[in-house]
Amino acid sequence: MTVIRQDDLIQSVADALQFISYYHPVDFIEAVNDAYEREESKAAKDALAQILINSRMCAMGHRPICQDTGIVSVFLKVGMNVQWQGDMSLDDMVNEGVRRAYNNPDNVLRASVLADPDGARKNTGDNTPAMITYKIVPGDTVDVHVAAKGGGSEAKTKFAMLNPSDSVVDWVLSVVPTMGAGWCPPGMLGIGIGGTADKAMQMAKEALLDPIDIHELRERGPSSRAEELRLELMEKVNDLGIGAQGLGGLTTVLDVKVKDCPTHAANKPVAIIPNCAATRHTHFVLDGSGPAQLEPPSLEHWPDVSWDVGDSVRRVNLDTVTKADIQAWKPGETVLLSGKLLTGRDAAHKKLVDMIGKGERLPVDFTNRFIYYVGPVDPVGDEVVGPAGPTTATRMDKFTRTMLEETGLIGMVGKAERGPTAIDAIRDNNAVYLMAVGGAAYLVSKAIKASKVVAFPELGMEAIYEFEVSDMPVTVAVDVNGESVHRTGPQQWQSIIEERKLALT
After folding, report:
1. SS3 assignment, position 344
2. What are phi and psi of 165, to 5 degrees?
3. Which of 85, 162, 252, 438 has its CA 20 to 30 A from that of 153?
4. Rg of the Cα atoms in the chain
């Protein structure tokens, strides 16, 4: 019989969440670096470089890889011979660990969990509750996997109840392009096949906890249908040419994980859950000797990568830029922003559009201004702002036309592609949309020299800030003519990949 103190689990969960907030798994870093070395698309290679540089900075500075520090998932296997010393439930222990981690004053993590999801959507303030799964198994230890899953990648989850004769490969290849770039590729795809709908989802999520080992599978060859699917989908998904951040390129996924389970004869449930460029998970085992001791990875695992903007970069002063100036900007062009940049995301946009609808005066003048879709992490120490990477821009699509036509706004900065509704509004109003790299939040924050809340302070991280930025790197994603690099880039690279394969046959 092993006795495990409740505080050992609490502290271990808290330490694990802090650990994964700034340390990528080493296998992930090595896989991204391999992709960086192979990449031929300049835009995608630049994005991969920023992800690697950001990752090393976070490992050194102990600050979050991404401003979206995730919703917590914890998977526990509790030995049947374990006895707990304490009076809390297992759920309460885990949630207390989450609470300690996210309120750690040395590395504050952003609280993103909202209660009453279809009503008031009020922030719980400490990122609880965690999503907890546990199994009772033979043994005398507690085996724990802790993960923090970003909302952008979780939002791209797909599920289907296929017919037994339907092709899983065909379905995956049909839905991955519809996921866009909001899941911040490159990352992993977790796929669950079989069981019931809920079991397929659980398997897809658990698959993402496995290490990146597709190269080892290639070398030894598949020994099951699930492994055959991994190899086939790895190749065919990358052949889509979506690339890093959806900009077009050779690497969209770093690995594909497949778990399966027996299912009803009439069914074939299939789930896909992607992991993003802020992949965060770790594993520990409690044996009664105290809290888990997590071993920090050596900085030698991070490549010495530099990012050079080159001579073609366009430098823009946000304090003087006009609508006439942006007419010449082209999709895929690198831009460095300096000056005053407003921020705002879902909640702020809704309040602004509601005020416009009521004819009320807005709290901020948006004339000839740019808005950055971001919810930053709180600063610590002498920081002016914590990690401040972009959030998924498509969530603001339904507000875009009103904002452009009613406020004088001329540009937006966010993550991933824009949908047809937003692109039409951008074209009709001769505006632009710029893309910042998802998964490079700490790197981006270093370009922010000052920060203040200018409206809606009650919204917390969703308030409207005014940032003073210096050489903040972005890419022109949609120009004034409505041309989108997230359409042209993948099309170009899918054609290049197809031509190369044909040349080899």
Report:
1. coil
2. -90, -5
3. 162
4. 23
Q: Going by DSSP bridges, is the β-strand pair 122-123/114-115 parallel, antiparallel, or unpaired? A: antiparallel
pLDDT, tens digit, for every residue of 353-368? 999 999 999 999 999 9
Of 107, 154, 153, give the one whose Cα is nearest residue 131: 154
CA distance linking residue 103 with residue 120, whole number of Å: 23
150-286: what fold? 60s Ribosomal Protein L30; Chain: A; (3.30.1330)
Residue 194 main-chain phi, psi, to 5 deg = 105, -170
**Residue, of 440 and 221, whose pLDDT is higher:** 221
- Assigned CATH topology for domain 314-489: fumarase (3.20.130)
Q: Which residues make beta-bridge pairs with 335?
A: 314, 474
Q: How far apart are CA 123 and CA 104, in angstroms?
A: 17
Nearest-angstrom CA–CA distance, 492 and 476? 17
Q: CB count, 10 Å around CB of 136?
A: 11
Q: CB of 462 within 8 A of CB of 391?
A: no
DSSP secondary structure code for residue 25 in this structure: -
Question: How does pLDDT run across 246-260, given as a tens digit for each residue?
Answer: 999 999 999 999 999
Cβ atoms 22, 58 nearer than 8 A = yes
Which ranges of 119-194 does DSSP label H, i.e. alpha helix?
151-154, 168-175
Tell me how far the alpha carbon of residue 340 is from its chain's centroid: 26
Residue 441 CB-half CA count within 13 A = 34
At 280-308, the pLDDT tens digits run 999 999 999 999 999 999 999 999 888 77
| Intervals of CATH 3.30.1330 along the chain | 150-286
Q: What percent of the chain is helix, strand and coil (3-state, nearest 5)?
A: 35, 25, 40
Residue ranges of the alpha helices (H) in 341-470? Answer: 346-357, 397-407, 420-428, 441-445
Where in the chain do CATH 3.20.130.10 domains reside?
314-489
Q: Do 287 and 140 meet the contact criterion of CB atoms below 8 Å apart?
A: yes
- Please say whether the beta carbons of 374 and 389 come within 8 A: yes
- Signed CA dihedral, 200, 201, 206, 211: sign only: positive
Nearest to 16 by CA among 207, 281, 366, 200: 281
Read off the pLDDT band of 310 (50, 70, 90).
Answer: low
Query: For residue 307, which amino acid is it?
Result: W
DSSP 296-326: PPPGGGS--------TT-EEEETTT--TTGG
Bridge partners, residue 135, by sequence: 77
- pTM, full prediction: 0.92
Among 384, 353, 375, residue whose Cα is nearest residue 468: 384
CA–CA gap between residue 241 and residue 116 (Å, rounded): 39
The Cα–Cα gap between 235 and 85 comes to 50
